[in-house]
Amino acid sequence: MPTFLPSLKNSGHLDHIHITLCNVGSRKLSEEDDYAEQGWNFFAPNLAIYGFDADADACDEANLDLIERQINWTERHIPLALGKTKGEAILYVTNHPMCSSLYPPNEVFLKRFVQLPEVMNLDFTIEIETTTLDSFCDGEEIQEVDFLQIDVQGADLQVLEGASRLLKDSVLGVKIEVEPSPLYLHQPLFADVDTYLRSQEFTLFDVSFARRPRARSPIISPAHPGQILWGDAFYFYDLLRQDIHLSRPKTPEQLLKLACMADVMDFSDYALEILEYLTLNYGENPNYNFANQIIETLSCFPEIVEQGLDSLPLIVGLREFITHR
Q1: Which of 64, 237, 261, 283 can pair with 279 through a Cys bridge, CB separation 3.0 to 4.6 Å?
Q2: In sequence order, what are the beta bridge partners of 124?
Q3: Residues 6 or more apart from 210 whose CB is under 8 A from it?
């Protein structure tokens, strides 16, 4: 649950921004995969979501669900396989379709771990057409994408490379699945993804890893309960960085979008840093004065109130921007 967005929504500050996000590998496996459950619904109706999955049935199911729920934002799921280029490719369909990939599963490696062969071993292959995210957005006249989520089982770097224009011009946040270990043959690894995103001026904020123990071992160490095999990495185009030359202008609208996306992704300290920066530098404009919302939100934390909210250096610096208490 986002920390600052409820107050920003109630105050009308979100009325002035529109968020567009792309979810590549958008198959919904549980309620947690629904964007409304993650906090993006705070931007409705100024929210556009484009989901992509090679499985047409999964897209049809997702689109039907959206119709039945009568959502108040724009969302559609498109049966496309996205990659680095337009062309033909082989899709390696695994025992569980969620693990299917443009790379063949590394079955010799997978069998060493608990419960991986059952879902990740190869079932069959099919030939498919691939395109790029840049090409899709050009065809749909989508000029900006603010947030990009990618989970395509080892081919995530290909999707990034096929979205080079969007990464250069507009994307502010990326959540991407990464594999430090070769779950698929010849796949790019976490280091390759990280190197590419850093070359595009994105900053790594966090990685949450999943582990698996060895299949034949009867013991698991509590200190190291298995090898890290995959995870989700979180990157932001940190507009507040001054140690590198950023190629994009630092506008208040972009900063507000960045703060909001950081809040959705549960980086509340980063969201607060940006909201404070906006207030101190652009607070003469009511659209970018967040002093009241910062105080309102922090007042919900009893431990902060007990320590003395008004004495915090952050609050002291915002006093001249407070319009009411």
Answers
A1: 283
A2: 93
A3: 228, 229, 230, 231
